[in-house]
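Researcher: Next entry in the queue.
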Amino acid sequence: MTGFRIFILFFAAQTCICLASTAQKQFKALIVTTTNGWHHESLHSGVIAIKELAARNFFDAVLFEDPNGFTDKFLEQFQVVIFLNTTGDIFNPEQQKAMEKFIQSGKGFVGIHSASDTEYEWEWYTKLVGRMFHIHPTIQTAKLQVLDSSFPGLQGFENGKLWTEEWYEFSEAKISGLQTVLAVDETTYNPKVQWGPKKGEGMGKVHPVSWYHNYDGGRSFYTALGHLPTNFSNEAFLNHLYAGIRWAATGKK
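Model: Structure for this entry, 253 residues:
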């Protein structure tokens, strides 16, 4: 083989590699980890896991780092915003308005675990999430229940699967139309808890863990799983999480 032919083959191979590396990804996700309350140990593991999900499933995942950078212009590049174990009040009024406009433009939101322990006074956000955190008992092992097998990513959560979690008890639904996909069987753990005057007795026959809904022109998916760092190396949870991210970003199940 002549030197010229070798050069042509090498150039073609490099061109293919370059084109593959610059090919447009499926979508782009922004990971928000801001906390103004409890800081979960699993945050670091969660960021790594979502970035690995992005690499595996050919989408981009960017960690939000500039506290003042949450603007309309910045958000234009993203199709979904992921609140990963956020807590407390994290956005000022201008940032809240940017988030509202983002969803109203037809884009998506994913809330993980304590995303429901965030921005209680922002009514629009509480409806976006769907239910807000109330209280939780000590971490326990319990059995999961699949309530909507038509939603993807639940193959690792067959009915009766044991899962160890900080089982959140939630408020009443903040909006109608929530589609619950996963629940926990309260008969398989002790939901009773008391924090001073604040009590938890469980949520009854259907204790929701994960749900989704269309909201204000966009899409919202929430999962209460994700308290423990080890959750983010569990393949069943990662499949569940990716299915929610993909649906929120694209509307595709």
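Model: The mean pLDDT is 92.
Researcher: Noted, moving on.
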